[in-house]
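Re: [help] complex structure
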Amino acid sequence: MDTKMSISSSIKDRTVEYAGRNLLSGFLFGLGLVAFIDEMVFHQLLHWHHFYDLSTSDAGLVSDGIFHAFSWLATVGSLFMVADLRRRGAWWIKRWIGGLLAGGGLFNLYDGLVQHKVMGLHQIRYGVDLLVYDLTWNIGAVVLLIAGLIIIFQTNKTIRQKGTS
Amino acid sequence: MHNHHAALEWWPQLLLAAPFLFLFILYGILYFLSFHKRKPWPIHRLLLWNTGLALCLISVIGPLARQAHFDFTAHMTGHLFLGMAGPLLLVLGAPITLLLRTLSVSRARKVSAFLRKPLLRVLTYPILPALLNVGGLWLLYTTSLYQLMHEYMLLHILIHLHVFFAGYLFTASIIYIDPIPHRVSYLTRALVLTGALAGHGILSKYLYAHPPAGVPAEQAQSGSMLMYYGGDAVDLVIIIILCRHWYHAARPRTLHSGQISTGG
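Output below.
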């Protein structure tokens, strides 16, 4: 209706309006970030993870390939989404970080439980007592995931409050 | 091993190099014509185009092409140049746009009518180029094709042409630099790109453990790692360009024009 009113109200409500995209962008960036850290730190710097492990099942190879490929798109795409949200004045950092932690935690958990253990992609480290490493890896993932979910639920509350007021 | 001389002679190398030399001359002529037409063509496109041609040439003629017959890592370097980095740079050279703007109007119409032909519509729908591209690689490296390629000259030439064309078609169907007959959504292109990259990465890791016939394990390992990370690097550039195009296309149009555009 009135241009002035719609502009002033849009500044306030934009974050809520784009709540879904904030969550998605954060989630994708979390996923990409964890995959990037995995590749950089554990494959390239520490050399704990191997490029290929003879125990790798075909499913593991396919799963790893798909996630690896998707992680590039997720990282780059989510950052362009942040740029898009910012130019719309709609970047909701808290919700974005909630998404990031949830995405990172979920992917780490998938990597630690399904890819490492079930599909035998590769182990976290070789020639050591694995249990400690597996526990640290997976508990860390769960902590990230829960922290992310808590933040997301908090921001959900904000959305509901703004929606009713 | 001693039969592996198929393309070591000079003439098959020259035969594969000829199309790229032709493109070099053609683009150069069009580049100068564009100034005559007072529609100057940006020099960075000329540089991208010629760098792409140089990468393709390096992979089909000269020391690297020769080395590729004995050394899988050298072969993979050439493959990255001819099938990925070269085509990407050539696509960024926007040859069709250059052609359309230097031709006369009636001829340009004929070219764009040709580009709208059903066959080209199908060929530029990203899924088909992705299958031609990555499927072709699976065929090449997991069957005896790789070994046969080194023995039969014709096969050698056909495979190299296929690698180049599939690479170019794939890149052009994912990032729209030149006009394309049928535009596909960003999401579809992003997903096809991810699928192709995944297929490429899975094949690289597969080759690490299962070398193509006649390739020593050590070469297969370094070659496959080069394939994996090199493929990542080129695809990362494609992803960034694709996302940039999305970012540009998705810009909010009424944000700054404010009152003028909301007047209606």
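Confidence is low (pLDDT under 50) at residues 1-11 of chain A.
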